[in-house]
């Protein structure tokens, strides 16, 4: 949330069938410019807020899980509204079901969550300008280098609980 004050972090789909809230701030937020995310989002990038699945509370509805291919070849599961099919979060195979990648655009006030890093900038659209004060990398990144210590501890706790 990059210096943002923590406020009510609720969101949902376009038709209102699916509603959720984040019970804490995300661990880390990345803005991904890879071609795969561009295709999936239908936009120039995907803005993902990584947070523990148990910190995403469903308020209304039940998402439909859609298995989709991914660039890694391991796939991912999108959680979509069963009515309007808007994606609210996804789970990558490598991260498992315990870590949600919440689509920041599905929040009621997406401007309250800012990216911590821009990734896969080697494939970003040329008209997208990245602020000079934010880290950016041409591919993926080593979380140990960029994530705050508290977020790394949260991630380690998730890994420890997976067994």
Report on this structure.
The protein is an alpha+beta fold and about 160 residues long. It has one domain: Beta Complex (Metal Binding Protein, Guanine Nucleotide Exchange Factor, Chain A). It is about 15% helix and about 30% strand. It is built from three helices and ten strands, in the order βββαβββββββαα. The chain is globular.
What's the CATH topology name?
A: Metal Binding Protein, Guanine Nucleotide Exchange Factor, Chain A
Mean pLDDT: 91
Strand content: 25-35%
Helix content: 10-25%
What is the C-alpha radius of gyration, as a whole number of Å?
A: 15 Å
Shape: globular
Largest sheet: 7 strands, mixed
In short:
The chain is an alpha+beta fold and 163 residues long.
Task: Describe the secondary structure blueprint for this structure.
Elements: E1 10-12, E2 19-22, E3 28-32, H1 35-41, E4 46-52, E5 56-60, E6 64-68, E7 76-80, E8 87-92, E9 99-103, E10 117-119, H2 143-146, H3 149-162
Parallel strand pairs: 3-10
Antiparallel strand pairs: 1-2, 2-5, 3-4, 4-9, 6-7, 7-8, 8-9
């Amino acid at each position: 949330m990059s210096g943002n004050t923590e406020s009510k972090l609720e969101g949902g789909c376009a038709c209102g069938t699916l509603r959720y809230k984040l019970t804490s701030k995300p661990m880390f937020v990345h803005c991904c410019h890879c071609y795969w995310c561009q295709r999936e989002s239908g936009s120039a990038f995907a803005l993902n807020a990584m947070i523990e699945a148990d910190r995403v509370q469903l308020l209304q509805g039940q998402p439909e899980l859609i298995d989709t291919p991914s660039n890694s070849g391991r796939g991912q599961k999108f959680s979509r509204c069963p009515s309007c099919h808007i994606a609210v979060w996804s789970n990558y195979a490598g991260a498992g079901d315990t870590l949600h990648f919440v689509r920041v655009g599905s929040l009621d006030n997406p401007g309250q969550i800012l990216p911590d890093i821009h990734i896969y900038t080697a494939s970003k659209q040329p008209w997208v300008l990245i602020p000079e004060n934010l880290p950016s990398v041409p591919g993926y990144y080593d979380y140990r280098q960029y994530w705050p210590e508290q977020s790394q501890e949260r991630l380690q706790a998730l890994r420890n609980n997976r067994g």
